[in-house]
Amino acid sequence: MGHGLGTKVVDRYSILGDDDVTPKVVKRVLTLCRLFLDEKLVTQSAVKSSLGLVDAPQPETVSLRDYNRLREDLEALKVQAEDDRKTAERESVRADNLLAQVGALNGRVRSLEAQLSSSKLERSRIGKEVEEMEARAENSSEALDDLIEVIEERTDFEFDSEVDTREEFLAGVIPKILEDLEALKAAEDE
């Protein structure tokens, strides 16, 4: 604020990351830590603890027997891993073969389904034709019955179902009726 007038905070910001100031502060902090450690005012474990640092574990010494056992275990694991790999390859090949068989079977099933659908349509068509034929036969049967009834009413002929079928009766009677008609015509013409 000027000579003898003190200071005033104008703006607050962090100097961490500042390329000029930060390295100088870090260097000063490390120098102070070294000074306190050299003067035994602070211990190394206290510094590590306050900074949240953990000592790296020291390597253990292993006996030759333990080392050999570990090597044997490692070799056994390698053999097991190779066996597992081979088994996995066989299973993979088997799975691929099964998938190919499934694909072929799916194709055959689709073909059979198409044939079945086609035969269902054909059966339905044939069923309709049979129904139509049965209806025509029923109508024909009714027409034959009506014709026999008319013949019995207007002539002396009588149908006996124990002796003849309807068709046989009509085949025998119709020519006789035609002959009688011809004779009547001839008599009328004279």
Percent in helix:
over 70%
The geometry reads as elongated
Q: Tell me the strand percentage band.
A: under 5%
| Order of helical and strand elements | HHHH
Euclidean distance between termini CA atoms: 163 Å
Write up what this structure looks like.
The chain has 190 residues and is mostly helical. Among the domains are: 8-53; 155-190. Helices cover 74% and strands 0% of the residues. It contains four helices and no strands. The longest helix has 91 residues, at 64-154. The protein starts with 21 loop residues before the first helix and ends with a helix.
Short overview:
With 190 residues, this protein is mostly helical.
Structural features:
mainly alpha, 190 residues, single chain, 0% strand
Explain the layout of strands and helices:
Blueprint: H1 22-38, H2 44-51, H3 64-154, H4 166-189
